[in-house]
């Protein structure tokens, strides 16, 4: 990591700590902010947060590794999380999963080489009556079919803006 | 006591789990009657079921519970049945506030315990035969007690994790880990180091360092307290026994062992004796039988340390109070505990100038043996192998510090822990407690009571005060403190603070004449000292110093990395509890009082060394070369 | 935003906004709690602890600061009612939290929203802003002098176990979501060691309804031990999956009729941690005293492979266990291995019995409710579908 990147991260962390307070209960909100902006929580970031909160880096790592939505490994711009829990499973998530793997050329738990997509499993997204469901970043897609996968990915590829994606989604499946 | 320093929570290490506070004030002191397995017992509100059962002599098995640590209630081996409750309750973590009927070994309970043991064994890889904890493993004992005769849920036939052997001090084998998290609570709560935590979740949960790096690459102070509290062989010390045997077997090698005071007070525990039975002189015989060529007493260099470190303190005081030259770094910190030193290097590197530059007794000894002793006996230092018997795992790291080669060779070749030496003695077929007593070898055999008490928290401070007071005031310290026992610095309280007014000053003794004209600068001065043991307490002291709190007014602070001081070191026999540490402390203090010479500056061998070898006296040129060192600012950050 | 497909309007839709809060603030605190207690409302998240009793304990606790925490970490497989309630009736939930704050003497409410529902955040923030605007949050709530109350939203980060109230509190405190030992309970020692009530989204919404319509109305519905209405999330092999409102005490058969699931071979009630009820027991009732649930109903049609269902649930628990206690962390993988053996037709009856007994240990010896309920589905499937799961030949699926 370049020094300037480290400095930017450090100053962001300082800013977020001002917002959420400088005690341990600020830890997860700050980690969420780092994850959102930097698509990962780096080793350096964890150490800065630990230092600022007066806890040990290993405690921060422990928390990061506990939660599915926090990760120290770099993630793609678009994190696709396909629900694998029972109702979505019964509604055909396996075929959607296969199509996602084919279209992205990666397996679950991996990120495409261009850094655009990360493919992950999710546990119950709370869309059990409209499965198979998946999240693309914060946007939820329901009743996903293998045929829809391509369109969703294309929409992502065309833009890095989540809002564009959202509007597309609204008209498509809302 | 410094009244503004919060020591109320300091000795978590020392008091063990504190019962949850009783909320309702009217309830304080209230008691509640429990019926356990048909017997009634009255206990204070908030007592755990486990403690209550103990009062009745009912043993409930535990794994994650440890008297030095906060309750966790996660291994679930201690579950009991409480009438009226659907689920079983973890007795170690259940504080009672109302009468209850409890059953500790119903079918449901026995079955649950058996299942828990079977589950642990289902991913516990490794043979008991090849384990450092064979015969002293809590999982092994439980398997025996619960009649495990086959692996109900299987048993791994290959390791799941690679061992981490990166550290000079601590080896981690996660294949043997049962995730009781005692090491985590030790490292974070008891020691404030934070090398270990649980990571991931579910079936992927494991204990790891920051980013799962090798232990040698993270902030670990090598104190080994995690080893002392590990119920299995998942954590053990890096054992150089084979190398030591090889040196003994090599006829060309002159193998010298120095033994520290704390192992002598504890090694009997490895031979079935209760804690508090020192075997100092039996051990000397055993060591010779093992084949060591010379058996020396580390107390000799402990006394030497007092003269060097004490002189250094007096020099700092002279600079601060009289010459007022340059920046003077006070309080001075002790440097004998390598766990503490590395803690400071990581967490408070800006305070390094405060640490005495005097080496620890172990390292002084190595340097003296490979120079003075070699010269004296006409032995080529390259043929000398110096072994140090220490209560400590961090000493293994210390002797491998790159700067510890001032003799021109590695000053100390191997650090052995008490446990490792006990194994060597057993391997040699020696029944240690039955050995005849024999003395240490000359010329480093003479020691004083001051050297002995280095093994207990407060001991270095007491030894230093005995010497400094007597040298400065010019009257026998026995006239100031009965039997020269400086009681206020003793004990197991986490942080202790003592003030001593210097009533008058005497003549500067000849030994120190080159450095001091007179003691006038100390006349009427109130010397303020503090003692802290366990790095969690060190952390509290350092935070107080950073804030400019009352402890920042101290002149001298003794820090020991381990709870109880060296006697509670990471190389000492397992288990460890406050009672055991107190018993060891009693053994050490009684040994001290039995010594004819009680003060370091009266050790004839030390005085002889200054006459014959370190001719410029304490803190002289040669002393500086051989007996002093420097430290490495390490910091908390690890590069990505 | 996804529109939930209601089958019939929920009672929540008929409740006049802020009437409940006004009714609550007009009462002395003790009367308010008495009203909630009288309704015999029990926690709608699944555990079923009487809400009034919980509030009473927290109200009695002496502390300078107390917290009202709304558990919106809806993660139980098959459950989505809280998402719908927060989408359509967020005001009722916030109103219920405010009522809770008044009842126990708290100034701070926290909604712990699961990370998967991040898309609800802008909507919820807007609702909160509007409530502040209307004086329903902030200083002197709804004109009640001396009662200050506000609500903040904290996001989860993807951990099912944080739905357990003490794990949720740990998570709020910046720690791993690992359940605590109880006692002490959150009503004494909750968030930041302060007395805290943790209630489910739906529970707070019902509190508001009870304040509007009265505890007698609520108590008249349902059974003696399970009063009132319950929102159910229905999914699986049925004609009309979605959100339903049923009185507690309804039989499973009747419910299946309503959702178009007649002919099912089994119903999973209570999500992954619930029970799998075979057709022969469809006359049982949904109630705390019979088949208890947080609201997840998953219908399994005649063609479903029940062993695959067991596998799916166990895979879920293997991953979502917090990993702290031995029975849950190490037990679930063993049960999953057992399913694999069954799939291969290599599980002896003796070993299956051993696993069943392990499951019973997990039910009684795990540290938290989630660990205790994790083997439920496995146990009920191997009990009720023994013929289906035993003696399989390679590669066979049912």
Amount of helix of chain C: 40-55%
The CATH homologous superfamily of the largest domain in chain C? NADH-ubiquinone oxidoreductase 51kDa subunit
Task: Report mean pLDDT of chain C, rounded to a whole number.
Answer: 95
Q: Which residue ranges of chain B are poorly predicted, with pLDDT under 50 across at least 5 consecutive positions?
A: 1-25
Number of strands of chain B: 17
* Assembly form of the protein: heterotrimer
- Beta strand count of chain C: 9
Query: What name does CATH use for the topology of the domain at 241-300 and 362-434 in chain B?
Result: Rossmann fold
Rg of chain B, rounded, reads: 26 Å
The helix tally of chain C amounts to 16
Tertiary shape of chain C: globular
Describe the structure.
The complex is a heterotrimer of chains A (about 170), B (about 650) and C (about 400). A five-stranded mixed beta sheet of chain A has the order 2-3-1-4-5, with helices on one face. Chain A has two domains: about 5-65, Arc Repressor Mutant, subunit A (Orthogonal Bundle); about 80-175, 3-Layer(aba) Sandwich (Glutaredoxin). Chain A has helices spanning about 5-20, 25-40, 45-55, 55-65, 85-90, 95-105, 145-160, 160-174, and strands at about 80-85, 110, 115-120, 135, 140. Chain A has about 170 residues and is an alpha+beta fold. Chain A contains eight helices and five strands. Chain B is α/β, with parallel strands linked by helices and about 650 residues long. Among the domains of chain B are: about 10-115, Ubiquitin-like (UB roll), CATH 3.10.20; about 125-235, Alpha-Beta Plaits (2-Layer Sandwich); about 240-300 and about 360-435, Rossmann fold. Helices cover about 30% and strands about 10% of the residues of chain B. In chain B, the strands form five sheets. Chain B has a five-stranded mixed beta sheet with strand order 2-1-5-3-4, with helices on both faces. A four-stranded parallel beta sheet of chain B has the order 11-10-13-14, sandwiched between helices. In chain B, strand 16 (about 525-535), helix 17 (about 535-545) and strand 17 (about 555-560) form a beta-alpha-beta unit. Residues about 1-25 of chain B have low confidence and may be disordered. Chain C folds into three domains: about 10-220, 3-Layer(aba) Sandwich (Rossmann fold), CATH 3.40.50.11540; about 230-300, Ubiquitin-like (UB roll) (Roll), CATH 3.10.20; about 305-390, de novo design (two linked rop proteins), CATH 1.20.1440.230. Chain C contains 16 helices and nine strands. Chain C has helices at about 20-25, 30-40, 50-60, 80-90, 90-105, 120-135, 165-170, 200-215, 215-220, 250-260, 305-320, 325-345, 350-365, 370-375, 375-385, 385-390, and strands spanning about 65-70, 110-115, 150-155, 195-200, 230-235, 240-245, 265-270, 275-280, 295-300. A five-stranded mixed beta sheet of chain C has the order 6-5-9-7-8. In chain C, strands 3-2-1-4 form a four-stranded parallel beta sheet, sandwiched between helices. In chain C, strand 7 and strand 8 (about 275-280) form a beta hairpin. The two termini of chain C are about 40 Å apart. At the A-C interface, helix 2, helix 4 and helix 5 of A face strand 5 and helix 11 of C.
